[in-house]
Amino acid sequence: MATKTPSSLEIAQEAQLRPIADIAAAAGLEADEVDLRGMLEELTEESSSYARRRVPCVLEVEDGIRVRTNEGLLRSIAGNLIGNALEYSPEASEVRVRATADRGAVELEISNPAPELAPQDVERLFEPFWRKDGGGSSSAHAGIGLTLTRALARALELDLQAELAPDGRLSMRLTGLLRTSS
């Protein structure tokens, strides 16, 4: 299988994000046992109350999924992804927050309709200060949230990827979480 060679932009972005991940790692992050459903219920409720539009947030997480990670950083990552999904979703749409466990691995997926995004935009979502023109959100956003969110994920040795489905639904997938045995 051929390995993709990183572009000069990807190399530059990695260099910009590395200090954030290094600081987080040097801080001696403690791992907690996190009730994923409980944390996501809190975050969806908090984010929904702050969203400027009434967009329902559907939680699809089985009971009993517990992961070992730094709860504060995971809360920041998931909170930003949920908040963005609610903020950028069109009216009368729905945000889905899903967590699935397969063997010991847990995947968190936050998805929302993103009709303004084109496939070529997806790679740019994590670029510092990049914003899609006319992106349905207030100018209060600086375009740095997803860059920082990915850096936090990397500090936890997790992977955060974006995918745009043919129907225009954007999915943000966080992988690398490990389920605890309890």
Mean pLDDT across all amino acids: 83
Radius of gyration: 16 Å
Global shape: globular
Query: How many distinct helices?
Result: 5
* SSE class: alpha+beta
Structure summary, number of beta strands: 7
What percentage of amino acids are in beta strands? Answer: 25-35%
Major sheet attributes: 5 strands, mixed
The CATH level-2 architecture is identified as 2-Layer Sandwich
Spans of at least 5 consecutive residues whose pLDDT stays below 50 are none
How much helix is in the residues? 25-40%
In CATH, the topology is named Heat Shock Protein 90
Order of helices and strands: HEHEEHEEHHEE
> What is the CATH class?
Alpha Beta
The rounded distance between the terminal residues' Cα atoms is 37 Å
Number of domains: 1
Biggest sheet: strands side by side, in what order? 2-4-5-7-6
Instruction: Look at the structure and name the CATH superfamily.
Output: Histidine kinase-like ATPase, C-terminal domain
Descriptive account of the structure:
By secondary structure, this protein is an alpha+beta fold. It has a single domain (8-178), classed as Histidine kinase-like ATPase, C-terminal domain (Heat Shock Protein 90). The chain contains five helices and seven strands; from the N terminus they run H-E-H-E-E-H-E-E-H-H-E-E. It has helices spanning 8-26, 36-50, 71-88, 119-122, 145-155; strands at 32-35, 57-61, 66-69, 95-102, 105-113, 159-164, 169-178. Strands 2-4-5-7-6 form a five-stranded mixed sheet. It has a two-stranded antiparallel ribbon with strand order 1-3. Strand 4 (95-102) and strand 5 form a beta hairpin. Helix 1 crosses helix 5, helix 2 (36-50) packs across helix 3 (71-88) and helix 3 (71-88) packs antiparallel against helix 5. The longest helix has 19 residues, at 8-26. The protein is globular and about 45 Å long. The mean pLDDT is 83.
